[in-house]
Every structure is written in C-alpha cells, then in structure tokens.
Write a structure and sequence with these properties.
By secondary structure, the chain is α/β, with parallel strands linked by helices. Helix content is about 55%, strand content about 10%.
Length: about 350
C-alpha cells in the first residue's frame, strides 16, 4: 500500500507565482464559479470563458468578471482551467482551446477523466496539471469565505515549464485548498478512485441503500414518513459525525443499541458478494468500459435516452415524493434550493 504521497499546505505554496498571469476559467457552474471567485478574492487575475448565449454570462459579469467566449478566453490566458461537464470537454478543447495554446501555457482540470481516457491529448509544450477539490463547488466557496478550505488533490501529467507542480500548488492556495491540505496523486489514480467512490459508495451505493431501506419499511406497512426519517433524513446526522470524528467518534455518539446493531448487521448487508460486485465496477472503470458506455449514452448518437430514463425513474421513487413533503415542514427549509439554482 502506498501511503507516502506528500500532502502540501499553505507554507509549501507561493501565490506570487501567479502574479502577472491571466487565469481563464472555462465554465461557470458549480466548480467554475467557486474557483473563479476564490481566486479573484485571493488577488489573481481571472477571466471567464463561456459559450455565446450561456445563461451564466450575465451572472459572471455581475460578480465582477470579464467574460469572453471560450476561444477568446483561451487566447488571452496563460493558465486555462476547464470546468465543464466531462462529456463536453473533448469537443470544446478541439474547437476553442487547442488552436490557442502557446508553448508554456498551463492546461488545468479538476477531474482526470479526459486525460486518463485520452479524449484530450495536449501538445508536449504545455504544462498539464490537475487541482481537484474534494467537495462540490458551493462548499469550496463557503469554506473559503469562512476562512477555511477544501482539501484538494494535485497531479502533474506534463511538466514542460519545470514549474508545473509549483504553479499548481499556487492555484490550490488561491482557491483555499492549501488551507486544508493538498494530496499529491496522478490523473489515473484520481480518475479511477473518484469514479469508483461515486458509483460504489457515495452516490450509487448510499442512495440505493437508503432507498432500499425505505422500500422495505414501506412494504412492511410502516408510514412512509417514518421510513423517510429513519432511512434517509438521519443519514446526514451519521455522516456529519463520521466527517467530524471518524467511525469511532460516530459510534461514541450513538446509543449502545445502535452500535451493537452496527457491528452485527453491517456485514450482513455488505457481504463478500457485494465486494465482488464492487471489484467488477472498479475493473470496468480501469479498463475504460464505463467511460465508453457513458460517452456513448451522452453522445448525439445515444441521445441520452438511457440516462434520461434512469433520471426519470429516480425522480419518481416514492421516497422523493415523501421527502419533498417532509422537507417543506422544516423551519430552515429552502425547498430544492440546489435544484432551482
């Protein structure tokens, strides 16, 4: 097991390396707006690149940025951070960024997908670096504003300038990541572990587990509102305890009854068969099968038919119906604020 990769902090980073450089953030969604605003607040020269007619154009201007088309921003920039959806990056790169790359530029990503699967193959005379915050954009922004930071990963795929890592660390400091820690990794490792974590645990695994528990209780005749509270609502309470103090801290905070049930029941749910399924998921990520299927579904030929069918099915799960009803009762509720914005 390799646990020797270094972690860098503020004292290891030199923000002045970004002095005199223009940073183009391509995309102004979750990560784009957060990284751009954090960098601007750190004193960096940031511009935004969007497609003409983007609904984010006015918002970015109102928040103090000069906004250009992606091609114009790339032409003006020394550092280009691509922060649009994975499936759209290849076409945007070929059309708007590659023609404007100059020797010594730095091309940046916050996820290794397009480099790992060779959808984007940069020229040899540019730096290629990843700074990947380990949180959604709104958290990257709120943690920065609170004087804290979001842990990041750093990876260097190409070091043409000889200073790629140092420049990447300066960027990580600019978005606040170095306040928390920046772990060195590779594009390959970040991509494969990120996809696996999302699918097997954080999104696919956790959502399926919560909804399965909800279904079992409802099928047994219990009030769906009770089922929602017990299997979905309280998940945040447990995860927050783990986030703060690890599994030991979470178990210290719950009842002996809950802790006992944890020990004897967890292994019945997550069995060796479950782990073997996880191993197959990882293998499909490693050999490119998942990426191939995803890109086909998201392509013009695929038409997102399968993806949209899955999305519609998820929206119609009974737990979603009751969840919306219950969340409206909360005194702090701002119903579906993440969806509306």
């Amino acid at each position: 097991m390799n646990d020797k990769n270094p972690i860098y902090y503020e004292s290891d980073c030199n923000l002045s390396l970004l002095d005199g450089k223009t940073i183009a953030i391509i995309g102004y969604g979750s990560q784009g707006h957060a990284q751009a605003l954090n960098l601007k607040d750190s004193g960096c020269n940031v511009i935004i690149g969007l497609y003409e007619g983007s609904k984010s154009w006015q918002r970015a201007e109102e928040q103090g940025f000069k906004v250009y088309t992606a091609a114009e921003a790339a032409e003006r920039a020394d550092i280009i951070m691509i922060l649009i959806n994975d499936e759209k990056q290849k076409a945007l790169y070929k059309e708007s960024i590659e023609p404007h790359l100059e020797a010594g530029n730095m091309l940046m990503f916050s996820h290794g997908f397009n480099i790992r699967y060779k959808l984007i193959v940069p020229p040899a005379d540019v730096d290629v670096v990843m700074i990947a915050p380990k949180a959604p954009g709104h958290t990257v922004r709120s943690e920065y504003q609170a004087g804290k930071g979001t842990p990041c990963l750093i990876a260097v795929e190409q070091d043409y300038s000889g200073k790629a890592k140092e420049l990447g660390l300066a960027y990580a400091l600019g978005i606040g990541g170095a306040r928390a820690g920046v772990l060195e990794t590779t594009f390959k490792t970040e991509t494969e572990t990120d996809l696996f974590g999302e699918q097997a645990v954080l999104c696919g695994g956790v959502c399926a587990l919560m909804q399965a528990g909800f279904d079992v209780l409802v099928e047994a005749g219990y009030d769906p509102r009770n089922a929602y509270f017990e299997c979905i609502h309280e998940m945040k309470l447990i995860v927050d305890l783990i986030y703060q103090s690890g599994f030991e801290g979470m178990r210290y905070s719950i009842s002996n009854t809950a802790e006992y049930g944890d020990y004897i029941t967890g292994p019945k749910i997550i069995t060796e068969e479950t782990k073997n399924t996880m191993r197959k998921i990882l293998a499909d990520i490693q050999d490119g099968s998942f990426a191939k299927n995803f890109l086909l579904d998201m392509s013009d030929a695929g038409g997102q038919v399968h993806f949209q069918a899955l999305r519609d099915k998820a929206k119609n799960h009974l737990s979603e119906t009751y969840g919306k009803e219950i969340r409206k009762l909360y005194s702090w509720s701002d119903e579906d604020k993440l969806i509306n914005n």
